[in-house]
Amino acid sequence: MAQHIYKICLIFFCITTVSSVVAQRADYLIVENPNALLILNKYEQNSTADFPSFTPFRILEEYTLLSDAVTPALKVRGEGKPLFIVRDEKGKIIGEQAAGYTAVFRKCVPVGDTVRVLRDRSILIYEKYFVKNARRSQFLKKNDILIRLFKYKNVYYVKRINRSPTYGWCRFPKGNGWRKLERQAAGQPLLSEDLRLRIKAFMTRINLTYENYFNYFNKVYHNQIPVPRWEVRETDERMELRFSGLSTGQLRRSTEVLIRNLETLLLGSGYAVYPQENGVLQIRWRKRVQR
User: What keywords would UniProt list here (predicted)?
Assistant: First the structure.
């Protein structure tokens, strides 16, 4: 009886929790001259990185304190690394005036896929978000490789990676001026770091839901049913989700909901969820042939 109640509750809470995770968006701070800011690495030491112009920083915590519990900062992720951008005692970002153009774009959709430009003068890249009579723009060249980092409204913020690293805004009109690549360019991870982080954060929320409600019902019904959880395993090409504690068959409905919402999370990335006979869920490139 108790296990039956667990199943009903887990289906309900899996649906509500997954829906809230999928609905998440990300905020980004774009800085024209980020090297003018006081940026610390995850150990709260001065960062030695040389950040390109118009580097985007994904905002993790808009207002936080450093380990001294006094210094205010902005916790971000930039160039694939966790960082702190230090604020002054009034909460203003130190060095912001010298940094030139700064802007925060909210409720963006992280993307992380890669495209190739197929023709000269087919795609424009803008340094700043589209404004009337924008001057600082240029046409991309044939065979330029772009990582589409995130989408704001109907526009993508990209990083050109095949020659001098350049950030900017692009529209991708329907036609034959560009195409999505099946794999990341050489030297780039096949499964982008941003997408990995989103999947792992998603699964952490699901596991926390299981833990909270199994602990609650174990206490109410005086049972000791083990808390199930999803374990994440990674390779360069894929991620695998393995369920432990119960069989996936016992939570078939909630697993189906999980798969559907993972597919929603992966929209636009080129990756998909492939359930295996042993209950493992593989996340891999949609067109890749399984050997």
Answer: Signal
Indicate the pairing of strand 137-139 with strand 145-152.
Answer: unpaired
Domain ends where: 153, 180, 207?
Answer: 180
Q: Which one of 77, 100, 123 terminates a domain?
A: 100
Question: Is residue 140 pLDDT above 60, yes or no?
Answer: yes
| C-alpha distance across the termini of the chain, in Å | 43
Residue 28 placed within a domain: no
Tens digits of per-residue pLDDT, 125-139?
A: 998 987 655 567 889
Q: Which of 166, 162, 197 is nearest to 77 (CA)?
A: 197
**What would the mean pLDDT of 263-275 be, rounded to a whole number?**
81
H helix intervals, the chain:
2-22, 193-221, 252-265
Same domain, 115 and 76: no
At residue 283, what are phi and psi to the nearest 5 degrees? -110, 110
Strands 124-126 and 137-139: antiparallel
Flag whether pLDDT at 291 surpasses 50: no
Contact 180, 270 (CB under 8 A): yes
pLDDT in tens, 74-124: 999 988 788 999 999 999 999 999 999 999 999 998 888 888 899 998 999
Q: Are 171 and 101 in contact (CB under 8 A)?
A: no
What three-state secondary structure class fits 265?
helix
Please indicate, yes or no, if residue 290 is contained in any of the structural domains. Answer: no
The Cα-based distances of 101 to 106, 116, 127, 244, 265 in angstroms read 16, 28, 10, 49, 31
Task: State the Cα–Cα distance between residues 207 and 232, nearest whole angstrom.
Answer: 11
| Strand partners for 26 | 108
